[in-house]
Amino acid sequence: MKIEKALTILNQLLEEHQPQTFSSSWIITNAPSIYQCIWKNAKTENGDVDWDSVTSALDRTFQRRFVRYRQKQVKPYEGQSEVDVILTKNKDRLYTLFAPLNERDKATQHRLIIRFVRIGQKGNICAQAELIKWVTFITDDWVDRYPQMLRWKGYEDEIADKIRHCIRCYRYTGSFLGYLFKTLEYSARGKPPLCSLDDMVLGGAKRLSEYVSAEE
After folding, report:
1. Is residue 203 domain-resident?
2. Cβ(187)–Cβ(165) under 8 Å?
3. Number of independent structural domains in the chain
4. Is residue 132 included in any domain, yes or no?
5. Residue 73 falls inside a structural domain
6. Contact 185, 167 (CB under 8 A)
7. Does one domain contain both 32 and 126?
8. What is the pTM of this model?
9. 84 and 182, same domain (yes or no)
10. Do 121 and 23 share a structural domain?
11. pLDDT for 194
């Protein structure tokens, strides 16, 4: 059975049963042949079942109902080899992580980001660091471009902490970048802006450092 057909049948089963939530165990119980097809044909670069590609192929109604298995306590580990597999197999597409050119590139960007998110959620601190490195290019652009993000200027370390938080908490198959953007946007509302002595004051006539010196 081809994976496309298997996902079509899975979607029909979900439509018929209308479970409030479902998981890999639900699929094994209700459609073992579908699960076997998914297990054989939907894999990540590191050999895990690619549940993100599976759920994203379903009707939107069911995408949020999928419950991913979650370990109660994740033990951090250094897994550079898992990161290297993703980087090597996608070396010609890495530019999409910070500069997608079209919708196809954006889909690739989403897929690669989710790859790092999922192994980061398993405790791989190398994957978390790799994702923070790439996503920082994007958050820097957000801070420069969007007024609601301006208060994050000068708080690079805290932005990295927010990215780690979003890696831990992300569950849905929707856009990770959208989730991160909203998290930063809401968090910025109560954050005081940082002032620099190089900032221009008095309508751009002086730098703040000159004004402070004059006052003294």
Report:
1. no
2. no
3. 2
4. yes
5. no
6. no
7. no
8. 0.80
9. yes
10. no
11. 57
On whether residue 25 sits in a domain, the answer given is yes
Domain match, 53 and 116 both: no
Q: How far apart are CA 93 and CA 113, in angstroms?
A: 12
| Long-range contacts, stretch 122-127, CB < 8 angstroms, 24+ apart | 122/71, 122/74, 123/74, 123/75, 123/76, 123/77, 124/77, 124/78, 124/79, 124/82, 124/83, 125/76, 125/77, 125/78, 126/78, 126/79, 126/80, 126/82, 126/83, 127/79, 127/82, 127/83
66 φ, ψ to 5°? -70, 130
Give the other-Cβ count within 10 Å of 17's Cβ. Answer: 10
| pLDDT at residue number 203 | 53
Q: Count of residues for the chain?
A: 216
Residue 210: is its pLDDT beyond 60? no
Q: What residue numbers bound the domain in which 163 lies?
A: 80-188
Is the backbone of residue 207 left (phi > 0), alpha (psi -120 to 50) or beta? beta
Residues 34 and 90 in one domain: no
Backbone angles phi, psi at 204, to 5 degrees: 90, 5
44: which 2 tokens?
């990540």
Taking all residues of the chain, what is their mean pLDDT, rounded to a whole number?
A: 87
Parallel, antiparallel or unpaired: strands 200-201 and 206-207: antiparallel
